[in-house]
Design a protein that fits this description.
Strand content: 15-25%
Largest sheet: 6 strands, parallel
Number of domains: 1
CATH topology: Rossmann fold
Distance between the termini: 9 Å
Shape: globular
CATH superfamily: Alpha/Beta hydrolase fold, catalytic domain
Length: 186
Amino acid sequence: MRASECDLLILPGLGGGSPDHWYMRWAARLSTARRVEQRDFDAPRLEEWTQAIARAAGAAERPVVLVGHALGALAGVHAAARLDTVVAAFLVAPPSETALRAAAGVDPAFAHAPRAPLGFPALLVASRNDSWCDYEDAAAYAAAWGATLADAGLSGHIDPESGHGPWPEGLMRFGQFLARIDKKIA
């Protein structure tokens, strides 16, 4: 599958991201990508976020691929059970339940991550020194969700602060992931 054959739903994390964040750049560069807006990126509520994702997926004209970073990735996983148009997910640096319990202003419901397989192909990209999630926790998420775990090495939170503004390696990895998605499931 190519990006032009699906609707890419960009799921920002806490704060919504800065213009130089990799997912903001992807949203601007990839013609079928659109950012899922949330009412409040600074005080997220799980039900609001999952409803916004479900509305965006329901409005899609092509098969949907979720592209989520941090809390956006986790919101996409929470929403997955409601979504029947999603064919794949590219999940980057989801926060651990421990980190979420300590995060001010974040709905505690986020800290109860689903533990069921997603039902579609997923790639979880995790760093070995992410302050929001230990690599072992990311590996446990990947196993529970039936996702392939991609080791990003020592990449911090995979955001502009860790040197991942454009993140060309991520875009290449995303393209390789999409190429393995069978069009027949779409």
